Amino acid sequence: xxxxxxxxxxxxxxxxxxxxxxxxxxxxxxxxxxxxxxxxxxxxxxxxxxxxxxxxxxxxxxxxxxxxxxxxxxxxxxxxxxxxxxxxxxxxxxxxxxxxxxxxxxxxxxxxxxxxxxxxxx
Length: 122
Description:
Its main location: other. Keywords: Bacterial flagellum, Cell projection, Cilium, Flagellum. It is found in: Bacterial flagellum basal body. Structural component of flagellum, the bacterial motility apparatus. Part of the rod structure of flagellar basal body. This is Flagellar basal body rod protein FlgB. This protein is mostly helical. The protein has one domain (10-119). The protein has five helices and two strands; from the N terminus they run ααβααβα. The protein has helices spanning 5-9, 12-31, 45-54, 57-62, 86-119, and strands at 41-42, 70-71. Strands 1-2 form a two-stranded antiparallel sheet. It is elongated. The relative contact order is 0.20.
């Protein structure tokens, strides 16, 4: 009887990968806040996670390329065509960072629990 990491760690490795991809998009949005014509993009976390899990779980999450990013619709369009709204992007980036940290904490707790079970220190 072997240990199946996919079952042991659950959804969290895939969630970490999706959160990392979303962080890249949000950071790009923030970096291009003053670039004329730049279109802000974001991932639908739930759809991206479902896609990663549907494509064979843990292994697919490690190779995850992300679902297609969607363009963000601004509440106040700028005259230069840039759709980045600094407050919206900063809030999304902060929330994504907190969610990433939560998933990382869950993975660390699972690994510590598995280590304790393997070494008999329960």
